[in-house]
Each structure stands twice: as C-alpha cells, then as structure tokens.
Specification:
two-stranded antiparallel ribbon, mainly beta, Lipoprotein
Length: 165
C-alpha cells in the first residue's frame, strides 16, 4: 500500500503545479485513475493508469500540443491534439505499445478535412512526457518522427481538461 500512496502523492503534486485553483483542483484528482496493483517506486511509469500532458511553443507560448495516454499492460491508447493559434489543427487518436518507458504509437488525425497518420515516439516518466521531434521528408513532403534524434520535445503533466467533453 505504501508505494501506491507515493505514486498518488507524486501524481497529484505534478498536477497541482499548473496554477489552477478552486473547482479545478478536484477535477485534477478525478483525472488521475490509478490501479494500486500497478504502482511502482522505481520511477518508471505506472501501468494501468491515465496520463495527460501539455507542451506549448511559439513566440509567446500560444501553440499547444496536448496528449492523453491510457496504459493497460503493454497497450497504449489515447488522444493527441496539436492546437496552433492561427494554423490548421490536428486532432486524433493514439494507438501503440509501451516497452519500459518507451512508447511507439500511430497518431491518426484529421486536418483540413483530411485523415492522415503519423508514427510518434515518446519516453514516459512519472511526471513528464518527452517526444522525438518530427522532421519533413524532403522527397515526399510528409512529416515523420526523427528516429536519430533524442526525446527533446518536453510535455508537462496536466489535468486532462483539454480532453473533457
């Protein structure tokens, strides 16, 4: 029971740092669903858990990418939304697998009325998500994950508000 309490405390502490107060605080606690049998003290991501993360970029931090992951054993499902301030948005689902702390998934998304897919690679810790950056294949013009790069796009834990309907 003790490892479960440590993971719960760490997960809630990570969400509390977002600056949201009041009613949002209770929503944060509800957004983290933890299976006590899956909790771990090794720093590796807990299994059978949901995570939400946000990354902002752009000159004033106006562009947002939000990721919601649900891990069940080796299977990873979820949603990913790229929400630039003044550009075309990409919203869709993630399906993949986790091996240790590495996630390989396919992001199936809709952009400008067209459906497309893109392979994405993440590294998950108990408080942060890192992604390998995307690059453009000059021959095809399509984006793809830069397999040679390190996990340099950093997402911070969030309360899942962007995924509530």
């Amino acid at each position: 029971m003790k490892p479960y309490m440590i993971v719960c405390a760490l997960a809630l502490a990570g969400c509390a740092g977002n600056g949201n107060k009041g009613a949002a605080d209770s929503a944060k606690a509800d957004s983290l669903k933890i299976d006590s049998a899956a909790a771990s003290t090794s720093g590796a991501p807990a299994q059978n858990m949901e995570y939400c993360f946000v990354h902002t970029d752009g000159t004033a931090g106006q562009d947002t990418t939000a990721v919601h992951l649900a891990i069940n054993g080796k299977k990873v499902t979820g949603e990913m939304s790229w929400l630039p301030k003044e550009k075309d948005r990409r919203k869709g689902t993630l399906e993949g697998t986790i091996d240790g702390d590495k996630i390989n998934a396919v992001w199936s998304f809709m952009q400008e009325g067209q459906t497309d897919t893109l392979g994405v690679a993440f590294k998950l810790s108990s408080q942060q998500l890192a992604q390998k950056p995307l690059t453009v294949d000059t021959k095809t013009g399509r984006q793809l994950t830069d397999g040679k790069a390190d996990y340099t796009v950093i997402y911070n834990m969030d309360n899942c508000d962007k995924f509530k309907k």
